[in-house]
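re: ur question from earlier - yeah i can do the single chain one, its not a big deal. heres the input i used so u can compare w yours
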Amino acid sequence: TFTAVRSQAPEIPVIILSAGDDVAMALQLIQEGADNYLVKSSCSAEALTRAIRFAMVKHGSNTRRQPTEEPLDTARVVAVTGGKGGVGATTVACTLASELRRRTGEAVLLADLDMHTGLVAFLMAVESEYSIMDAVSNSARLDRSLWQRIVVQSEEGVDVVCSPSTAGSIVAHPEQLGQVLATIRPFYRWIVLDLGRLNCCAPRILEAADELVVITTTGIPALYETKRAIETLRAAGMGDRIRLTVNQMEPLEGCPQKDLRSIFGVEVSTVLPSSSRELHEACIQKKMPGRNSAFSKEVGKLVQAIGGPPEVELRKPTLAERFRLNRKSAAQPAVK
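and the output i got, formated as tokens:
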């Protein structure tokens, strides 16, 4: 029975609960992959609970690193950058990575390449003693095992590589960052790069990106700086990869969305709502915005714009199905 279960569901932890107190059999099953072996006559509620928890922890630690154990197809790289500072690029990058992970269930990396703020670690509620600079300094010998020590996993299941803890004190050479990106790209299905504001390192990194998410607000300074950034990207031959996203952090200030096309020369992919309150609450709770929040729903549209899957709506049961379920529940005896 165990062999059949293991062959059909190798990723599920299995605990053997048997009437036989056979040490040899127990050792054999453990060697073949069972997470624990309990004897019915001596199994208490506490022992069973403890065995289940240990199995879940063991299984969870294995699955968290599963994305880097086997080579995957080359990841789709999405670079997120702001036309100017303070337009919410990091918030969008974190929410985008979390939505990709939730919708696809695939391996997702969020890389903080903004050396001036280090805001990704704060928003994703993670702590790590290593940063992207540790990967850069070891780029010549960087492999899956070393990479696993550098990244940390968020509550949403996203692998996060942080920027240095001392903000702005270190500048990574674009060629070195490009080498690290090329090394880790086979480890993931999706890689989200938070570049912060467009800087001197960005063009070299952006060359490797499949999608360029450019964030702007509708404030005049942001519109001016974003226009310059887009012109730079288009001059570098990256215009077809731009996904312009408007973050409505303030009122529209007399600039309707229809006018943005004429200002920037590219279509607007997504307009994010003003969600200061819910983003504030998420920061206090050290969580990403909920899947049903207005902000996450609009970021979901951005997921689709970059080639990700649409949201799968759960089908509501029909009246006949609800009637059958109610009858079935009423027919079951009460449990004392």
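The radius of gyration is 24 Å. not sure if urs matches, ping me
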